[in-house]
Amino acid sequence: MTTGRGAKPVVAVTSGEPAGVGPELCARLAGREWPVTPVILGDIDLLRARAALTGSPLRFVPWEGQASPDGALPVLHVPLARPSRPGVLDAANGRYVLELLDRAIKGCMEGEFAAMVTAPVHKGVICESLGAPDAMPFSGHTEYLAEQTHTPRVVMMLVGGGMRVALVTTHLPLAQVPAAVTAPALEETIRILHTDLVRHFGITAPRILVAGLNPHAGEGGHMGREEIDVIIPVLERLRAEGMQLIGPLPADTLFVPHTLAQGDAVLAMYHDQGLPVLKHASFGGGVNVTLGLPIIRTSVDHGTALDLAGSGKADPGSLFAALDLAATMVAARAVR
User: Fold this and answer.
1) Structural domains counted in the chain
2) Closest to 241 in 3D by CA, of 192, 203, 191
3) Binding residue ranges
4) Which positions make up the binding site for a divalent metal cation?
5) Using one digit for the tens of pLDDT, what is the confidence trace for 115-130?
6) Which CATH number fits the domain that encloses residue 25?
7) What range does the domain containing 11 cover?
8) With the C-alpha atoms ordered 247, 250, 255, 258, is the resulting torsion angle positive or negative?
9) Is there a single domain that holds both residue 200 and residue 106?
10) 312 secondary structure, DSSP code
């Protein structure tokens, strides 16, 4: 969807956990010129109160399908279940957070929004609100988006510090990683990563640097056989289809500038293999991207920061970067 002013695409920005820094970070989107029209999804009174608390002289107006001509920040109002205080979690508002996500997903699927950007949520509060905290019915944004869009497999990729790092496995105990790096999982992940680098990033012939699982990429089988038995056969099969796949590479030397310059993205086998390097280079300005969805979704790379909520000290850099990247992805998709 586009607005009447400059025909800019409209991007939904969910304000996340109301007790966290999300609402005040969303308020900071005002006062800047964006290549898209951001629409904040949240309780408009909460946003006004949090802006006032942090000393932001902002105006919020209800979203009516077009950008406000006087620069006020448009808000698609979703009412809180109960008033929220900075830093104080309340399970009564757990379902409110899901309502924000559901409305953004619906808008993206129906073409009302060109993309969605998410501020952080608190998984525990949402699970408690659903009545089964031990069962963990909500394990995170990524899993929820996949379920709601009926997507069988998604890929987490972080962008920042001049890098794109995607993951084969995400939030698994380290002891479970080798068994999860199967040929089907690796092949599906590479196909999704390759497709979305073309579709959303405008890279016509992506070059993907693939990390090995073991130290020294297994060193010919002396430090593990996953490279020989799983990774190399998958890479050879996909190379035969024309994909540019470099590896498996030892992870300890993959992230040097010379090697990174040879690729458009890195594929790491597990969470802490790839993300510490990227976060060292970009923390506070990194972006989490969910690949494989039928919609565009980017997110901040940090949590709810309850201790900073209401203080005005939270850094909006990651949210700004997430909105900028969503705009770039929307533009890349539009030219295809």
Assistant:
1) 2
2) 191
3) 141-142, 171, 216, 271, 279, 288, 297
4) 171, 216, 271
5) 999 999 988 888 887 7
6) 3.40.718.10
7) 1-151+294-336
8) negative
9) no
10) S
